[in-house]
Amino acid sequence: MSKSFLRVESSRFLRFLMNRVLRELGESDLERSAVVFSPHPDDETLGCGGTIIRKKRMGADVTIVFMTDGGRSHRHLISENELKSIRAREALAATRMLGVEEKDVVFLQFENGKLDGSRELAISKVTDILADQKPEGVFIPYYKEPSSWSEDHLATNRIVVSALQIYRRKAVIFEYPIGFWCNWPWTNLRPTYSSMKIFSALKQVLLSGSSALRDFRYAVSIEEVLEIKRAALDQYKSQMTRLIPDPRWKTLGDVSNGDFLKCFFQEYEIFRRFEE
């Protein structure tokens, strides 16, 4: 049995099990107002773009908050200031495709990669947003996002949860996975299993599967809006294409040879749900 075959079949089997235990959110859930907190421009579309589209179609008020400016993603090839401007324009184009008006998009502009260093100020700003919007639902990155993917994801989770505790009004929290998918068997990343034994591979399947089956119990069907979600993500040209012809300009499609992106274009967007 090849490791490639084992990975593909394992991820397929885990998807099957997850789909069996998922509870699909209904129209009453989709009609509720929400604030989506995105660590970087593109995470909102990757993690819950389909859900945003469906909520807007149901007439829900949705605000999207970008925590950082995204200026460091390709700073070895382009100036941070230029990239900040590019990513802000891309974010507005993408959110417009999702059905969210510019007036409902907030840029907090904390420095990409250093969000946790501005924790107290970020908590204050997020608390103000919550008090102003009074959302029924809040979307944030998964609390077990791997720190090796981006510290900003974990920082966003902790900042928003802290702000909710100060805010002191009940809201349903939906955590969406991003870096979580950069684990075997979903992709062939972290770690690479070039010399690993089949037993170790199966052990990793159990670890990934138990986490997914335990935490991700809620879902939104996005089959009917997949192409719109894809079109929204394509607005992030700095992340989806090479703005300059240099192989060092890495794109989302380069991550695990495209397997990473495939994780976001399945039948459902999945969430860990709880109330704060």
Topology:
Layout: H1 3-21, E1 23-24, H2 27-30, E2 34-38, H3 43-57, E3 62-68, H4 80-98, E4 105-110, H5 119-133, E5 137-141, H6 151-167, E6 172-176, H7 198-215, E7 218-221, H8 226-234, H9 237-240, H10 259-262, E8 268-275
Parallel strand pairs: 1-7, 2-3, 2-5, 3-4, 5-6
Antiparallel strand pairs: 6-8, 7-8
Helix pairs in contact: 1-7, 3-4, 3-8, 4-8, 5-6
What descriptive keywords fit this protein?
Rossmann fold, 10 helices, 276 residues, alpha/beta, eight-stranded mixed sheet
Description:
Strand 3 (62-68), helix 4 and strand 4 (105-110) form a beta-alpha-beta unit. The protein has one domain: Rossmann fold (3-Layer(aba) Sandwich). It is globular and about 55 Å long. The protein is of the alpha/beta class. 43% of the residues are buried. It contains ten helices and eight strands. Helices cover 45% and strands 15% of the residues. It has helices spanning 3-21, 27-30, 43-57, 80-98, 119-133, 151-167, 198-215, 226-234, 237-240, 259-262, and strands at residues 23-24, 34-38, 62-68, 105-110, 137-141, 172-176, 218-221, 268-275. The model is unreliable at 191-195 (pLDDT under 50). It has an eight-stranded mixed sheet with strand order 1-7-8-6-5-2-3-4, sandwiched between helices.
**Tertiary shape:** globular
Our measurement of the CA-to-CA distance between the termini, rounded to an integer number of angstroms, reads 46 Å
- Number of helical segments? 10
Helix content: 40-55%
* CATH top level class name: Alpha Beta
Taken in chain order, the helices and strands follow as HEHEHEHEHEHEHEHHHE
What is the makeup of the main sheet? 8 strands, mixed
Strand order of the largest sheet: 1-7-8-6-5-2-3-4
What kind of oligomer do you see? single chain
Structural class: alpha/beta
Mean of residue pLDDT values: 91
Tell me the CATH architecture. 3-Layer(aba) Sandwich
Number of strands: 8
